[in-house]
Amino acid sequence: MFKNLSKTIEELDTSSISERRLQILQRFTALLSDELKSNQVVKLNFICTHNSRRSHLVQVWAQTLANYFGLNMQCFSGGTEATAVYPMVTKTLRKQGFGIGELKRPKNPLYYLKSGENAQPLVLFSKTYDDPFNPKNGYTAVMTCADADENCPIVLGAKHRFALTYDDPKTFDGTAQAQAKYLERSTQMATELFVVFQQLAKL
User: Fold this and answer.
1) Model-level pTM?
2) Which residue among 82, 169, 198, 199 sits deepest, i.e. has the most Cβ atoms within 10 Å of its Cβ?
3) Are 141 and 79 in contact (CB under 8 A)?
4) What is the DSSP-derived secondary structure letter of residue 170?
5) Which residue, 164, 154, 132, 191, is CA-closest to 32?
6) How many domains does the chain contain in total?
7) CATH number for the domain including 59?
């Protein structure tokens, strides 16, 4: 693992998680625990409306921390519609220690993200949750924004559905606070998933 990324993970402050969020995370842990006991590979599809910000950030941290704790998981992301990965997302992840390459494509660039020199790259681009790149069935749909959770009552192919929603850093786009707010949201996701996956690794 890249040194700066390892440092980011080691410095996560789990004491910053509120009691309300811990209760949600405990339910998520229980769901994933059952899945790990009954499946060789657990597949998670993180879903947001545009698959441009939150769903990518949480997908990256879920896959990275699953690997970090030795959990057999495959993490994906999608939206109810496809747009493009917002540039501040990759900028934030690079700041936190990931290595990122880009394949420029009209309107919807494709990114290769690595957690270490010899790590398998994670491919990021905006897509719908049922895109051929994602699993067709047998996965857990994790709704990362309230809008997608409310307006997408049925996620085709999902065996489970869980709401783990986050405030949208998009609110701060174009402001002096944008970089700090994206970093804050990404760190929150990493911290919460660290708690979940650390508990799963002990089971």
Assistant:
1) 0.96
2) 169
3) no
4) G
5) 164
6) 1
7) 3.40.50.2300
Read off the pLDDT of residues 41-94 as tens digits, 9 standing for 90 and up: 999 999 999 999 999 999 999 999 999 999 999 999 999 899 999 999 999 999
Helix, strand, or coil here: 141? Answer: strand
Lookup: tokens for 156? 């085709």
Strand partners, 203: none
Domain that holds residue 82: 3-10+17-202
Calculate the CA 62 to chain-centre distance.
5
Please choose, from the candidates 184, 197, 163, the residue with its C-alpha nearest in 3D space to the C-alpha of residue 53.
184
Taking CA atoms, 188 is separated from 12, 13, 90, 139, 197, in Å, by 9, 9, 16, 24, 14
Instruction: Give the long-range contacts of residues 193-198, CB within 8 A, separation 24 or more.
Output: 193/58, 193/61, 193/62, 193/65, 194/9, 194/12, 194/14, 194/65, 195/14, 195/17, 195/22, 195/25, 196/25, 196/28, 196/29, 196/32, 197/62, 197/65, 197/66, 197/68, 197/69, 197/71, 198/69
Q: What is the pLDDT of residues 138-163, one digit of tens each?
A: 999 999 988 766 766 678 899 999 99
* β-strands 42-48, 139-143 pairing: parallel
